[in-house]
Amino acid sequence: MQLESVTLRHIRMNLKSPFSNSLETVTARDLIIVEVRDSEGEVGFGEGVAFTSPWYTEETLQTSWHMLRDFIIPKLKNQLIAHPSDVEGILAGIRRNPMAKSAIEGAIWDLYAKREGISLSRALGGSSQKIKAGVAVGASDPSVMLEEIHRRVDEGYERIKVKIKPSQDISILEAIRHSYPNLSLMADANSAYSLQDIDRLKALDPFHLLMIEQPLAADDIVDHAILQKEIETPVCLDESIHSYDDARRALDLNSCKIINIKPGRVGGLSVSKRIHDLCSERGIPVWCGGMLESGIGRAHNIALSSLANFTIPGDVSASARYWEKDIIEPEVEVENGLITVSKENGIGYEINWQELERVTVSKEVY
After folding, report:
1. CB 342 within 8 A of CB 299
2. Which of 2, 51, 95, 103 is the most buried (most CB within 10 A)?
3. Is 16 part of the annotated catalytic residue set?
């Protein structure tokens, strides 16, 4: 493959309702849509998932755009790419910036699968025909959270994730367990705790959570190892894992029992697959986290989640969970708690060009 052109779009999609965690409340989602085109006119699509402010990681939409425009696209220009996994090596001289790298690498994976006449799932080595869907419930008043959980359970979601923090953890978990004693339930702390909170985190063990996600600092794997020894609840690492080596070190230290893989956070689908394979070898289950993606990013996550060791339902919910209208056709749907993995070429969804143009804030072609 050789890229003929790359188009960057800044899009803004309004959420149906605000989404809150311990660090931020998001009401509209700004994203970068990457469109790569080869000399034969085939097109692939990827998505940059950095937020407009650096609350989740140090990357922002603006820095990702800068990296893509001034470094990544020029680096890939005139390169013959035999396979999407080559992109990681080509961009190795550019430190970090995984979300910018993932955005264009995902588009190249889509392009490659279309050129090969296969689905993205098959290109990645996926085997599942359907994946289990989970859903995240943002932090808010406990009664409001319970109402949303009722709706999501009725819709068939098999795993519910709730956002917690020290001022809102035991109370909400008690309320949920009272109504749903057997629900597959996990808690996401977004680094809201420290080792000084070990006793409070131990108090969560009786709720029999599937896991607690990223309870301690976003850049830590050492303190998490100390914590995991002290609590029964499995620790899942999210923000701490930015690369294959981060995952390897965390497993070597026994810092967690589960890893959340987000392609944007680790630098793309190729790295995601290698982390998946490592965890499979170590007997560590993985799941695919969500970043409030549009349908394009969601389609990539579905394909990734079809790999064998994605045994825990991920944050890959229906388009209608977040958007009045998505930018893909058909939209992602959940039926009886399951999402069908597309067998169509590439990401398996068409672009709704009218809706994409409507939500486009700016566009540049290189």
Report:
1. yes
2. 103
3. no
